[in-house]
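notes to self, project folder thing:

trying the whole complex as one job this time. last attempt i did each chain seperately and stitching them together was a nightmare. two parts in total, labels are on each line so i dont mix them up again. if this works i'll redo the older ones the same way
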Amino acid sequence: MSKGLLKETLDILAPAQEDVPVWEDVLARAGIENPVPLRRPFWKRSWVIAIALMVAILVPLAAIGSEQGWLWLMDGKLPPGEAHPISNVVKLQSGYWKGEHWRTAAYRAFPHLYRPDGPTTESVCLIVEFAPFSPGVAQCAALPNTHYPPKTSGADWPLSPSIELVGGNPWAVERDYSENGPGYLIGMTTSNVSTVEVHLKDGRVMDTSTFSAPEALGVPVNFFVRPLPTWGLSFHMTKLVGLDAEGKVVACLAWRPESIVGTTPTACS
Amino acid sequence: MRSKSASLEAIERVYRTKAGGFLRLALATTGNVERARDALQEGFARAIRSRDTFRGTGSIEAWLARCVLNAARDSYDPVELNGDAESTEGSFELSSDGSRSIVREAIMQLPRRQREAVFLRYYLDLDYRAIGEALGMETGTVSATLHAAKAALAETLQEVER
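result (full assembly):
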């Protein structure tokens, strides 16, 4: 039997798969976390200081912009106003969390969903569905620092974060296993962010790699999806930190007081 | 120098660089895409949970391959592999000429050891020593096993062509 025929045979039997499950799912199944040291070398911490100084200037703007309508993303309700998809729905990733089959998709919408009374801008809507895949609720947000297609050029953006928590069901963590499926977080960030750290009130840090938006979506952003482990404790997230490929902090969003529920995120200070 | 246990970082490194190959190994073993994905994740999760048992005397890839194979065997469904796969969502799809069904049949007719040795060699590019570690056989036996598998597969496929 020729080597070529054997190769062809095995390629037919198990063709290469484009969509490989995520490492974070392995960690969740193993019941452990992926710890990230909080202490960084000085040169990295100096970047934190530099970024903090920059965002401190932008906090007032961020506070004004985020005052309205952000938390609908977290309570599962539909946003006020109408969403008009302006792109096809593009599949992002799929996999298994704690045995549950999930998949994610995204599309661009107009106007900006969570600020229907604000500037007419685009947003990116993310959908997370669990098998048997009943229609999921799209959760939308926008990254003002991202250059959207010409339609929105010149838009007056009220916010200036480079990272957004678009949705999730953190309550699943508290209840171990909610009717909404395993706990997860999903969001988007600028294309230079390669890793997102999720900082918790108790000092723990979870990290996850980002992935690029498919070209078909037409927006140069990165996404992140992070299954949440079961700890039997309340989930208190304090901030999301975006790191570039060299480990530098290039995006940050914080919650005060240190919890998702009932608070409004602002750029880190 | 080998470490005496498999670190989480080492396991993650293998996953991030070779998950595609491990997924194909699981897919060839289970015959079902979704089961294969589950076996891949479960195999690595088991490896993490039992990483202290890795003795460090062999290849970590071989040890992980054994974990994934075990997980895949746990979800093995002989009915699905031998004929009903087309009716199961996420399973192999038949190509227009039915060649995939013939190939699957030829592969599944191989003894399990031969079949898995071929999978490990081709999908993960393991050397003979690592294949032996993954399947619990002597390195010297691996070559003969692979040779026998190729010969048997060639014979089956030639019969189909006639």
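what i see at first glance: The interface with chain A takes residues 8, 12, 15-16, 19-20, 23-25, 27-28, 33-34, 36-38, 40-42, 44-46, 48-49, 92, 95, 99-100, 103-104, 106-107, 118-119, 122-123, 150-151, 153-154, 157 of chain B (CB under 8 Å).
need to look closer tmrw
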